[in-house]
């Protein structure tokens, strides 16, 4: 809900100083709208079935809440973009995770488009983390000097040396990373 609040106020989270936002959620907008519409239709259908006033009201409240939750997750992808600054690279997905990687620990950030078979791909494999926020496709790869600890949405942690994730404009992200790195020297 915090993401929805920031979205309505047209604010972004974590963009300060020389930090540059790197959006990643534009391809997912349609699916969030479909989920929200299905939730609304479902709530309406439950309203048509007469289960009594208490059950009808409860199902209506749950339907509205589920639509708000869906829009909140989408809003979180907009207001919490990946961030590249002279200090760090932050890889995020809505409010589910926020991984901070200090620039001193980054060997390279490069554009490399890959598709990962969901049946075969695991989020963590061979010290590589695949951020599956875009239909099992990634287009940026960060290689690290030292492993970083990534916390999964449910709390389990993993140590990774390679992070693969997606951005709407990966070439621009690499250019920003290189430009901000040159400015530091």
Automatic annotation (TrEMBL):
This chain's source organism reads Amycolatopsis regifaucium
> Transmembrane ranges?
30-49, 55-77
| UniProt keywords, alphabetically | Membrane, Transmembrane, Transmembrane helix
> Know the name of this protein?
Uncharacterized protein
Q: Does the keyword Transmembrane apply?
A: yes
């Amino acid at each position: 809900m915090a993401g929805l609040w920031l979205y309505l106020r047209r604010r972004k989270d974590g963009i300060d100083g020389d930090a540059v936002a790197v959006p990643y959620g534009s391809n997912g907008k349609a699916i969030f709208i479909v989920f929200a519409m299905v939730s609304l239709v479902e709530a309406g259908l439950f309203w048509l079935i007469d289960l009594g006033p208490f059950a009808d009201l409860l199902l209506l409240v749950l339907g509205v809440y589920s639509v708000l939750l869906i829009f909140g997750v989408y809003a979180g992808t907009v207001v919490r973009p990946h961030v590249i600054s002279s200090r760090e690279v932050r890889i995020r997905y809505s409010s589910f995770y926020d991984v901070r990687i200090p620039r001193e620990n980054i060997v390279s950030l490069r554009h490399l488009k890959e598709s990962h078979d969901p049946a075969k791909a695991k989020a963590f494999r061979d010290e590589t983390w695949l951020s599956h926020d875009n239909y099992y496709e990634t287009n940026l790869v960060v290689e690290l000097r030292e492993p970083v600890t990534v916390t999964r949405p449910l709390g389990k942690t993993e140590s990774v040396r390679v992070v693969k994730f997606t951005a709407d404009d990966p070439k621009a992200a690499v250019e920003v990373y290189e430009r901000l790195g040159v400015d530091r020297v």
